[in-house]
């Protein structure tokens, strides 16, 4: 029975990572993130408490919910970039 030949290639070495660590976020990032989430929450709560849809913006009607949830979602999306 014939013998197999040994490997001529060296062992696997992983490629060098060319990416540089982006580092921490700017100082304004967390306050803006939390501010957007809090502003959205206040917007929605104000809409529900007003009862007659008088606040925060009467011309928007039920779209006030969309504005509030949009603000909250913007803040939550920022959490994915938080380091």
Spell out the key features of this protein.
elongated; cell membrane; 83 residues; mainly alpha; single chain
Q: How does this structure look, described?
A:
This protein has 2 helices and no strands. With 83 residues, the protein is mainly α. The chain has a domain of 38 residues. Helix 1 packs antiparallel against helix 2. The protein starts with 28 loop residues before the first helix and ends in a 5-residue tail after the last helix.
Question: Nutshell version of this structure?
Answer:
The protein is mainly α. It has helices at residues 29-50, 63-78.
Structure class: mainly alpha
Kindly report the average pLDDT value.
89
Helix coverage percent: 40-55%
Shape type: elongated
Determine the N-to-C terminus distance: 60 Å
Instruction: Estimate what percentage of residues fall within beta strands.
Output: under 5%
Q: Based on DSSP secondary structure assignment, what is the total number of beta strands?
A: 0
Quick one: biggest sheet? Answer: none
SS summary, helix count: 2
What is the element string, with H for helices and E for strands?
HH
Which spans have pLDDT < 50 for at least 5 consecutive residues?
none
Compute the CA-based radius of gyration.
27 Å
Transmembrane segments: 28-49, 61-79
Keywords: Cell cycle, Cell division, Cell membrane, Membrane, Transmembrane, Transmembrane helix
Region (Disordered): 1-25
Subcellular location: Cell membrane
